[in-house]
Amino acid sequence: MIAAKDNSPHLTPEEYFAWEETQLEKYEYIEGHVYAMGGGSVNHGRIAIRLTALFEAHLEGSGCIPGNSDIKINMLETENYTYPDASVTCDDRDKNTPNFFTYPCLIVEVLSKSTEAYDRGGKFRIYRQNPALIDYLLVSSTQIAMDLYHKNDAGEWIIINYQEGDTIELKSINLSFPIEQVYRGLNLTPED
């Protein structure tokens, strides 16, 4: 998704929730300011749908809950809320919050030109403060490529770069799949 700052006044989290319910679009909430979530490319949408469907099928009956871009993430110990393209929580505490996850073990962002730098930098710096997060997957919409930020058993973040022919391994949900499964039939061009 593409975020653009809205010119609305500074809001409290409670005001944000009430205000967003009256809006036609979704808005992220960072440090009291709202950011409109614009649409992405066709590839962006298809990739997000495929990943969410893959997670849903794999996790059925597991107690884990996959989320799509309609599920907000509350950035732990902050009053900030984002809309990643996909997420998964396996934490029982998230079963008691109907509007957002706070303890995701997996977060996925499909990259757009306008948000890639933020997704790799500032957003990841905030997300990785959450002790429940194990995997942060960044997915290209213009080429067969994914970057996985994985927290190992020592608590260190490592980056694994995947490309054509590779098998993605998401240890957070015990799932492996060929990268091509997500990209089949897409028209990959640098303009997406």
UniProtKB/TrEMBL annotation:
Keywords: Endonuclease, Hydrolase, Nuclease
Keyword Protease: no
Identification of the protein by name: Uma2 family endonuclease
Domain Putative restriction endonuclease span(s) in chain numbering: 13-173
Keyword check for Cytoplasm: no
GO molecular function, one term: endonuclease activity
Gene3D superfamilies: tt1808, chain A
Pfam families linked: Uma2
Provenance organism: Roseofilum halophilum BLCC-M91
